[in-house]
Amino acid sequence: MQIEQLQQEIPRIFAPWIAQMGLEVLSAEPGRVRLRLPVKPEFVHVGGVMCGQAAMAAADTAMVLAMMATLGEFRPMTTVQLQTSFLRPVSGTHCLIEAQVLRSGKSLAFGQIDILGADGKLAAQATTTYALL
């Protein structure tokens, strides 16, 4: 799927609040996507950095888009596991989310997501398992 197609699918497939996050698809190829997430004031907690909940929502969304790029279409799937390690805080104007499908089988898919700060440094890393329905 092309960048434009994936971008158009965000408000169609995901909950309205995910579409309101402002994710922008920067690149897409089978098994990989790269997104830009603005660090909006509503994502920042009292510590002055982006909250983990926003990062995990962006990671989960990115992996669904990477699966779509792999499959060539949206197929119903559900998150079975999403494990995230937070390595450094995210601040600044945006962050980048890079999702990669590691393996996609008939009923399960596995992936990895890197979240990079605006400075390009790794801020969080997640691994995921999805059940294809």
From TrEMBL:
The keyword NAD does not apply. InterPro entries: ACOT13, HotDog_dom_sf, PAAI_dom, Thioestr_dom. Keywords: Hydrolase. GO terms for molecular function: fatty acyl-CoA hydrolase activity. Residues 48-123 form the Thioesterase domain. The keyword Hydrolase applies. Belongs to the thioesterase PaaI family. This is PaaI family thioesterase. It comes from Paucibacter sediminis.
